[in-house]
From TrEMBL:
Binding site for Mg(2+) 1: D337, E350
NCBIfam families: D_ala_D_alaTIGR (TIGR01205), PRK01966.1-4 (NF002528)
Ranges where the ATP-grasp domain occurs: 158-383
InterPro entries: ATP-grasp, ATP_grasp_subdomain_1, D-Ala_lig_Van_CS, D_ala_D_ala, Dala_Dala_lig_C, Dala_Dala_lig_N, PreATP-grasp_dom_sf
UniProt binding sites for ATP: 154, 206-208, 214-215, 247-254, 349-350
PROSITE patterns the UniProt entry points to: ATP_GRASP, DALA_DALA_LIGASE_1, DALA_DALA_LIGASE_2
Names of the cofactor(s): Mn(2+); Mg(2+)
Top-level taxonomy: Bacteria, Bacillati, Actinomycetota, Actinomycetes, Bifidobacteriales
Record pathway: Cell wall biogenesis; peptidoglycan biosynthesis
Catalytic activity: 2 D-alanine + ATP = D-alanyl-D-alanine + ADP + phosphate + H(+)
Task performed by this protein: Cell wall formation.
Name of the gene encoding the protein in the UniProt record: ddl
Taxonomic source organism: Bifidobacterium bombi DSM 19703
MF GO annotations: ATP binding; D-alanine-D-alanine ligase activity; metal ion binding
Cofactor note text: Binds 2 magnesium or manganese ions per subunit.
Record-given protein name: D-alanine--D-alanine ligase
Length: 387
């Protein structure tokens, strides 16, 4: 039987570029190569599609830093130097992938059965790549154009969930395009504070870009009515997006639920909910789940599946996660992140349509704990889109 040829897209232009590289390393390492022939295609930070001379399976975040340079102690990056570029012909569908050789000639990559876009953040998880693959008529893993775009934007995710009667974190959205960057938003902070008061938001507050991931640009505000602290947080978030959310800090536990619906139109199923346990909180640290806790500091946190919660609460998280997935027209896979209060109330924080996919990421770990192995999960996702 012919092996199915699967293009694994990784890298990308977003801040999550290195996370995508590591997720792709995990997918390529776990893919059943008796049934599938992986074809890795990297996307550089400049947006160039390449067949990289670096084997993506070697990527890791161990001992990483955020300087973006290539090397053993820095974030992994798709490097274009020495790479052959990939050219797309959208009119040729599954035969539309070509390699530009060093002499400028084009050679066909051959038939492609499906694409696994292991891309996080803008230009990958936001509907752009999904729209391109739709135009080419190439099957792909994951949510479609609408769900990808809507869930990439936390503001519109909340709008959709609220319309469906699903509880979300109280907050406001701020447009900073008219703010004065020369003084770091200092003069604009007062009117934002007025909006915070009008919305009756409670401190601590979290300030975060609407369209970014992996905790990039997120700040926690502790001091009530501190204009300077607010201005700095808004300015930091504005480096990633002009639309910024300011939300209540919630006295709750962060519980994540993996949802899987590989068959188009099929009923979604939810894995056992898991929790990222912030280990330094037990030492008295006022720690929140920032970039370092997620990726670069192995002693900052660990994954616990199932979360240490009563069965009734775990069931409620799974029920709401499936409702949220359906409300945004999800497909394939997503991770629904929730807050669970001391009284068992469940509030949805956000939805990740292409969650971290490394072997130790929450999404595959949750399904492994539910009885579906990492390799089995990848196989199920791929089989479904090639029906």
């Amino acid at each position: 039987m012919r092996r199915k040829r699967i293009v694994v897209l990784y890298g990308g232009r977003a801040d999550e570029h290195p996370i995508s590289c590591v997720s792709a390393a995990g997918v390529l390492g776990a893919m059943d190569t008796d049934r599938f022939e992986p074809v890795p295609i990297g996307i550089t930070k400049e947006g160039q599609w390449v067949v990289s001379p670096v084997d993506p399976r070697t990527y890791s975040l161990g001992g990483a830093s955020q300087d973006g340079a290539a090397g053993s102690t820095s974030m992994p990056e798709v490097i274009a130097s020495g790479a052959r570029s990939v050219v797309l012909d959208t009119g040729k569908g599954s035969e539309g992938f070509f390699i530009r050789e060093q002499d400028g000639s084009l050679s066909s990559l051959g038939h492609v059965d499906a694409v696994f876009p292991v891309l996080h953040g803008p230009y990958g998880e936001d509907g752009t790549v999904q729209g391109l693959l739709e135009m080419m008529g190439v099957p792909y893993v994951g949510c479609g154009v609408f769900a990808s775009a809507a869930c990439m934007d936390k503001h519109f995710t909340k709008t959709l969930l609220q319309a469906a009667g699903i509880p979300v974190v109280p907050g406001i959205t701020v447009d900073v395009r008219g703010f004065d960057a020369d003084d770091g938003f200092g003069r604009d902070a007062r009117k934002v504070l007025d909006s915070i008061h009008a919305a009756h938001l409670r401190y601590p507050l979290f300030v975060k870009p609407s369209r970014a991931g992996s905790s990039f640009g997120v700040s926690k505000l502790e001091r009530e009515d501190d204009e300077r602290e607010l201005a700095a947080a808004l300015f930091e978030a504005s480096q990633h997006d002009w639309r910024i959310l300011i939300e209540n800090g919630v006295d709750a536990r962060e519980i994540e639920c993996a949802v899987l619906a590989p068959v188009k139109g099929g009923e979604p199923r939810a894995a056992l909910p898991g929790e990222i346990v912030l280990d330094r909180r037990s030492d008295g640290d006022d720690q929140f789940y920032d970039f370092d806790s997620k990726y670069t500091d192995s002693e900052a946190s660990h994954v616990q599946v199932p979360a240490d919660l009563p069965q009734s609460v775990l069931d409620e998280v799974r029920r709401i996660a499936i409702r949220a997935f359906k409300a945004v027209d999800g497909a394939g896979l997503s991770r629904v992140d929730t807050f669970v209060g001391a009284n068992g109330d469940v509030v949805v924080n956000e939805i990740n349509t292409m969650p971290g996919f490394t072997p130790i990421s929450m999404y595959p770990k949750a399904f492994e704990a539910t009885g579906l192995s990492y390799t089995g999960l990848i196989t199920e996702l791929l089989d479904a889109v090639m029906v």
